[in-house]
């Protein structure tokens, strides 16, 4: 067989691969010598090909044993494709409407074939930069988060199922270490990878590296990230891992998945929305001051959390007599107690969410990988103004998060930054 | 080979086993037909044989596929012996003075051969009931806890080593589930296994089952137990898992070991000392009012925590430039910050310790397995008085633990219970 061992594909060899795999060729139909193949990987790590045939299409994603945007000098296990495929299937099982279907996985080739999210699907981040409203976004993403996180947690699962799954995902350690480095470490120390809008943010970057209060808090969050196996999290749920149309929301790219703290996913999403919010002033032109759009982002933040909480609670109530081992029905056996327990649960989860979300914002301003929302603001002084506001908020929230009890208070804090 | 598959041994077949294993026969020396073999398993789960030969001795512990004190009606994987052996070796590596040496492990037979802790070693719990002071106990047990917990945590280890070890110990899930049931669940619900000093504690047991505040807190602790892989904990560190003489302290029986929260071990030990303290009034006879002995127990509680903290801190400072990934030296790079971070670390750990310790006390009074300290008080009304005090304290501490900042405040709270 031509593909009995790993080899990186290109537009040409991909055709041979598709021909050799019936599950794929049958999807595309007709004359396989007439495929349209286009590499579109705008992400940081992998190669992504859109393959269009006479009667069907698909996307093929391949992991190479290094980080694409850096090159072979930064090796990274291609086994990440395995964890991505397992997670796409597991999350897809619990939330099929918001995760692309996996057609085929080849561990040897570190290759996933999945549904092509056809136009007008675009990466959410691009839509946010363009100022496009997605009226169903909060509804959809809260569905995704509530279902994937609830069903992979001990509220739904037995300890036996949980520990088995936790053990397997311990194997995705290289990707966890990458997050540890870029989110929890590099921004707080001198690192060759860090950069920021210089000279405007020179002092701000230095202040982050010298802020003892921040370092105490980031240590707590890092230990939660490393030690707390609360649910199968996506692990990289920023607005660049979501594809949208007016009616559809699809979560892609869970290669960083592992059993970690739920707040890391929810925080990633909300933190990136906050970055999008602060970037708007840099995108305002003439008439279009983006004021209404900023309000829509804030509303989406608030709705996302509130809908998440509502849906997660509904799942909890629905399955409260099931085989989940965290809250046994014989103990949590009256409605007031159920309310009390859930109140505490979401209070703690909001604090985690705000903490992780803030950490994600900080690292996007003074760490290695920035966001296009801010990078695309051409005027550096304008960009720096946006970044300073986001950084100010993130530092405050990271340190003071336990004082917040409701998402509306977070939104007010965002709004109050000038 | 006679032992190519599992079979339960007895005093007779044990001789054949020892003869067949050179590592064992060579330890015992001389005429192997003249061995003295005695089954001494007073524990709940396994069989333990003391084997004495002409020029040496050893202990052989075998796990059967059920819980000994209940019988074959409660099956329990014999693989627990594997996790016990791995942990004895790992903990022994970091604290050889306080862990018996493993001579031989046979996974097929679920059999561990280890150093015989010869007389005058006795189980610490028995010494506490007899009112014997062990002046080095706090010194030794704090050595054990500081070394085993520090060296298996992310303060010392890399994420890669950590996740690998976590994954392996996910395999000890049956023992974790047993703890979940008997510590975090059964006492808070009606269970056929629960019992208490009836009728004296009937209302108290019912109050535990109806205490919503307690149930909210026990849920948080249970989720920490199930989700937080902080270090390789012993998992059953009560005073019946420690053997002592005036000069020696040895920790045995880590079959419940897994990567869990450190406070579960420290709390188990301190909680059982508190039970021993409250039991003393039931053992006072005539002249010997046990007043001084109670003071020694309180001092041992305080010393154990303070010495643990001191030693753990010293290890942390010693290895702060090592390969541990929780606190990178480039970030935690000044003495004030190091102090700040450690202060928070031990504050959180004290709260965990008090929480888990209280949960362990509660389950020993109204759950399935009680402690000899209290059970050996023949007069049930006297026993009930001791138990009510312990239960009162444990409930208060479990709910109010976050208000305590120092072990001396805990000791005062113990002392103030009348
Ligand atoms: N199923 C899909 N359908 C359409 N486009 C996709 C699909 N998966 C990925 N893409 C495109 O490829 C880009 C990179 O994919 P991604 O999975 O994020 O890779 P990386 O891991 O390298 O970040 C996405 O930003 C998106 O534009
Ligand atoms: N290494 C040893 N040396 C001497 N006695 C031991 C040793 N190990 C166990 N024992 C004795 O056997 C008893 C039961 O051992 P333990 O390991 O606690 O078994 P279990 O898992 O059944 O509780 C202990 O209480 C102690 O009296
Ligand atoms: Mg991506
Ligand atoms: Mg990716
Ligand atoms: Mg024992
Ligand atoms: Mg035991
Ligand atoms: Mg460093």
TrEMBL record, chains A, B:
Keywords: ATP-binding, Kinase, Nucleotide-binding, Transferase
Pfam families: APH
Keyword Kinase appears in the UniProt entry: yes
Signal peptide (residue range): none
A single GO BP: methionine biosynthetic process
InterPro entries: Aminoglycoside_PTrfase, Kinase-like_dom_sf, Methylthioribose_kinase
Catalytic class of the enzyme: transferase
GO molecular function: ATP binding; S-methyl-5-thioribose kinase activity
Enzyme Commission designation: 2.7.1.100
Record-annotated Aminoglycoside phosphotransferase domain positions: 172-270
Subunit structure: Homodimer.
Record-stated family: Belongs to the methylthioribose kinase family.
Protein name: S-methyl-5-thioribose kinase
Organism expressing this protein natively: Cannabis sativa
């Amino acid at each position: 067989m031509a593909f009995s061992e790993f080899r990186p594909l290109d537009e040409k060899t991909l055709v041979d691969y598709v021909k050799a795999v019936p599950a794929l060729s049958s999807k595309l139909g007709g004359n396989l010598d007439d495929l349209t193949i286009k590499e579109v990987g705008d992400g940081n790590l992998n190669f992504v090909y859109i393959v269009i045939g006479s009667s069907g299409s698909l996307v093929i994603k391949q992991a190479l044993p290094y980080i694409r945007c850096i090159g072979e000098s930064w090796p990274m296990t291609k086994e990440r494709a395995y964890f991505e495929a397992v997670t796409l299937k597991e999350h897809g099982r619990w939330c099929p409407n918001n995760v692309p279907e996996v057609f085929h996985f080849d561990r040897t080739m570190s290759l996933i074939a999945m549904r092509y999210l056809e136009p007008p699907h675009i990466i959410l981040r691009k839509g946010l930069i363009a100022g496009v409203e997605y009226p169903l976004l909060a509804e959809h993403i809260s569905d995704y988060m509530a279902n994937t996180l609830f069903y992979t947690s001990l509220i739904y699962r037995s300890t036996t199922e949980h520990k088995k799954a936790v053990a397997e995902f311990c194997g995705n350690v290289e990707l966890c270490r990458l997050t540890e480095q870029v989110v929890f470490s590099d921004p707080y120390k001198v690192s060759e990878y860090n950069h920021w809008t210089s000279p405007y943010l020179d002092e701000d970057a230095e202040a982050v590296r010298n802020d003892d209060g921040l370092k105490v808090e980031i240590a707590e969050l890092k230990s939660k990230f490393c030690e707390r196996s609360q649910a199968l999290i996506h692990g990289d749920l920023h607005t660049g891992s979501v594809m949208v149309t007016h009616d559809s929301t699809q979560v892609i790219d869970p290669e960083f998945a592992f059993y970690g703290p739920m707040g890391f996913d929810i925080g990633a999403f909300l933190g990136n929305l906050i970055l999008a919010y602060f970037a708007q002033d840099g995108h305002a032109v003439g008439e279009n001051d983006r004021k209404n759009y900023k309000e829509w982002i804030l509303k989406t933040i608030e709705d996302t959390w509130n809908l998440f909480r509502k849906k997660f609670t509904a799942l909890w109530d629905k399955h409260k007599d099931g085989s989940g081992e965290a809250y046994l029905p014989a103990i949590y056996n009256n409605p007031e107690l159920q309310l009390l327990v859930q109140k505490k649960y979401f209070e703690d989860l909001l604090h985690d969410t705000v903490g992780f979300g803030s950490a994600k914002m900080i690292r996007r301003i003074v760490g290695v990988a920035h966001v296009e929302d801010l990078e695309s603001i051409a005027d550096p002084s304008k960009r720096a103004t946006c970044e300073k506001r986001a950084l100010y908020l993130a530092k405050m929230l990271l340190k003071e998060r336990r004082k917040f009890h409701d998402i509306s208070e977070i939104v007010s804090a965002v709004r109050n930054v000038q």
